[in-house]
Amino acid sequence: MSELPSTVPVAPKAKRLDYIDLLRGWAVIVMIETHVFNATLTREITEGGLYGYITFINGLVAPSFLFASGLAYAVTTRRKLNDYLSFGQPLLKQVGRLLLILAIGYLLHLPKFNYVQIMSVTEERPWRIFFQADVLQCIAVSLLFMQALLLLLRSERRLCLTLIAVTAGVVFLTPIVWGIDFWPILPAPLAGYLNGIYFKNFPGFPLFPWSAFLFAGAIVGYFYQESRTSTEQEFAMMKWLLWWSLGLILASFVIHPVAALVYPTYDYWRFSPSFYLLRLGIVIALCVGMFFYEKRQVVSQRSPVTLIGRESLIVYATHLLLIFGNFSSFNFSKHVNHTFGYGEAIITTILLMGLMYALALFWSRIKRGSPRWRTTLQFGTLAVLVGVFFFGPGE
Fold it and tell me: pLDDT of 193-203, one tens digit each?
């Protein structure tokens, strides 16, 4: 077997970085609140002035989640770089994990979770919604893209430099991409990844601009890993990163009036470079805050925020099913139908958060237990889902 390139560094001893789990956990917790509020609050409340501030905070959830995913990828890649540069079992396992995330994303978008009913769906809109890129599809495809780039470039440094160029390209090409109707041009599975022009209420998470948050996280992760030669360097890097976050926020206001004039298609809140830079700056500041919190506080492994961050995939999928899923003839969001006030929505959010914490705690214990029991549970759950999909009763 040929030797790996000399640029491959020695991976440090594996240790979870709690601040990444804190950032991801914060994002998932606020995501639960976002989905509950969106599904339950009355139209009068959502059209009020106070809800606009809540919407802005909630709008930081997806950027934080994506950024943390890129950050975690950079840390994991440093630890497993030798494996990821060769076509062995660890790389295949990583690719399989990403394909599983992709599959879960599509399963959550099925028009009906019943084979017979799906075959009877002939309207175009349900299938466009199915092919619309959501956050899990964006994460999986972006990580697969970076994995392929790493295999091609054979170096973390070259990957980082390439991602800087790719991120800038995605950000500043986004208004142009959103001005093109790709659905008549490309197959639906590809068109759904480029923009969300057919979904004004919920445009999803197409690669333009959302992948740029994940790429930015991977870039920051690379520089963070490079700074871990000493505690002083690590802290200096994070302080430097805080100044960068402030610079991005200021730049967002500077380029906004210019961008509004340059681009023929421009929407500040949906796909502008200005709003991207503003949110990225805030997310980086949040990340730095989580880092210093971790360094100054002992983060418990049972901390609800940290635990939900570690088990974010199962929490994400389950809470969506509970809010928007169809259980026989019952659907929570349709049953409530935007009739809650703030009090009822907050109580529902707290109850759902508690349930998701219990789920994360249960799943973390399963993962630490017997591999045979974990595998049995996974395949048993899969068998039940397959059975319900193909043989479950229709409406």
Answer: 999 888 776 78
In a domain, 340, yes or no: yes
Residues of the domain holding 365: 13-59+306-395
Residue 49 clears pLDDT 60, i.e. is over it:
yes
pLDDT for 140 equals 97
- Using CA atoms of 65, 325, 369, 102 in order, give the dihedral in degrees to the nearest 10: -50
Domain-embedded: residue 313: yes
Which DSSP symbol is given to 193?
T
Residue 100 φ/ψ region, left for φ over 0, alpha for ψ in the -120 to 50 degree band, beta for the rest: alpha
Q: What is the DSSP annotation of 339-357?
A: -B-HHHHHHHHHHHHHHHH
With a pLDDT cut of 90, the percent of the chain lying above it is: 67
What is the C-alpha to C-alpha distance for residues 144 and 151, in angstroms, rounded to an integer?
A: 11
Whole-structure pTM value: 0.92
At residue 198, the 3 state secondary structure works out as coil
**Comparing C-alpha atoms, which of 327, 325, 313 is closest to residue 363?**
313
Structure tokens at 262: 């340059």
Q: How many CB atoms lie within 10 A of CB 353?
A: 19
- Dihedral of CA atoms 333, 354, 75, 59 in degrees, nearest 10, equals 40
Q: What is the CA radius of gyration of the chain?
A: 22
Range in 93-107, 131-145, 174-188, 192-206 the model is least confident about? 192-206
Determine the number of helices (DSSP H) and then strands (DSSP E) in the chain. Answer: 20, 2
Residue whose entry in the numeric block shows the structure tokens 């396992």: 93
Total domains in the fold of the chain: 1
Which one, of 75, 79, 82, 220, lies nearest residue 151 by Cα? 82
- If pLDDT is split at 50, 70 and 90, which confidence band does 2 have? very low
Please state the rounded mean pLDDT for residues 247-261.
96
Decide if 111 is inside a domain. no
- Domain assignment present for 346: yes
Encoded tokens for 39: 């599904």
